[in-house]
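Q: Could you write out the predicted structure for this multi-component system? I'm mainly interested in how the pieces pack against one another.
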Amino acid sequence: MGNPFKLDLGDYLPYLVNRVGAIIAEQFGEEALAPHGLSIAMWRVMVVLASEANQRQIDLAALTSIDASTLSRLVTRLVRMGLVTRTRSARSNREVAVKLSAKGRALVVRLIPIAREYEAAAIAGVPAEELAVVKRCLRLIYGNMKSRPAPKSGSQQLPPHDRLLA
Amino acid sequence: MGNPFKLDLGDYLPYLVNRVGAIIAEQFGEEALAPHGLSIAMWRVMVVLASEANQRQIDLAALTSIDASTLSRLVTRLVRMGLVTRTRSARSNREVAVKLSAKGRALVVRLIPIAREYEAAAIAGVPAEELAVVKRCLRLIYGNMKSRPAPKSGSQQLPPHDRLLA
DNA sequence: GCAAAATAATTGACAATGCATCAGTTGTAA
DNA sequence: TTACAACTGATGCATTGTCAATTATTTTGC
C-alpha cells in the first residue's frame, strides 16, 4: 500500500481525472456531437466562443488545451463548415478574430442543454456541497500546475554564445 | 447565469476535469516521460501493467481509456522498445498476454516516484478530507457514466449496487 | 456437433495531431 | 530610427489516432 514503487490507480488523482474526462467526452461525443459532424475539440472551441465571442486563436488554444497549430487547422475546418468566421483582428494585423457564425451559434445553443444533461447524469448522487468542493479543488489544482515553474525555458536555456548564433 | 443557453465554463465539470487532466499530462509528459522516449499513453499502459501484470489488450484498453486498435499498435511499439512482451495467452489462443519486461519494470519503478511528485504538486493546498471527497466523487462519476444505458447497442450489465448509484 | 454469433486482435485507409519552422507583425531598447 | 526580440498564425512533415473491415478463435443455441 505505502510502497513507493507501486501506484494504486484507484487512488491516483491523474488517473481518476483522466478516465472521467475520457468517458464523458466519449459518450457526449459519440451520441450528441457526431450526428452533427462535430468532434470534441470542435465542440470545445465553439462553447468557448459562445461564452466569450471574438477570441484570438492563441487564446482559444489556451482555453481549450488544444495545441496552437492543431487549433489553426481546426478553425479552418470550422470555417469550411460555416460554423465560425475568421477575420483579421481590428486591433492588430497579426491576430485573427474567431467568432461564431449564426449557424454556429444556433448549433451551440441546441447542444448546450444536452451538454448539461450529460453533466447532470455524471454527477447524479453527488451532494451539492461535495460537488462544490470538487469544482473548487479542480480549479485550485489547475492553478497549481499552471503556476508551476516551467523547467522548459528556465533550466534549459542556451549559453550566451549559442543564443547569439541562434 | 441561469440562462440555459449559456455555459459558464468555470462551473462546468467536464471542462474543469478536462483542463486538469490536460495540464498534468502535458507537464509530466514533457518533463518526465519525453526524456525516456515515452508518451503519456505508453506511460498509462505501463503503469497499469505495473499494478496488474499480465493483461489482455482489451483489458488494457478499458483500463487506460485507449482505443483497442490504437492500443494494438501502441503495444507493438512498446515491444520494439523492449519495455513489454506480448505472448499468446495460455487461456485462449485469440487472446494476448501483455507483460512488463525487466527493462520496462525498471523504468516504471523509476517513474512512479516522479509521478507521485507531480500529483503532490497538483494537490498542494488541498486539505486531506477535501481530496478524499474529490477522489470519491470522481470514482462515483465514472461509475455513473459507465453504467449509463448505451444508446448504441447492447446494454452492459452491472451489479445491482452499481446500478443504484446511477 | 455444427452453424451462427460473439469476442480479441489486427490491418488498411484516411484524418488528426504535434513538433519544428517559417513568415509577417508588433513591441522594445539602444 | 533601427536593429533585435517576442508574438501570432500557418505550414511541412512525420507520427499517431480512428473507423471500418478482416482474420482467427471461442462461445452459444438448436
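A: Regarding packing and overall arrangement: Chain B has two domains: 9-124, 127-166.
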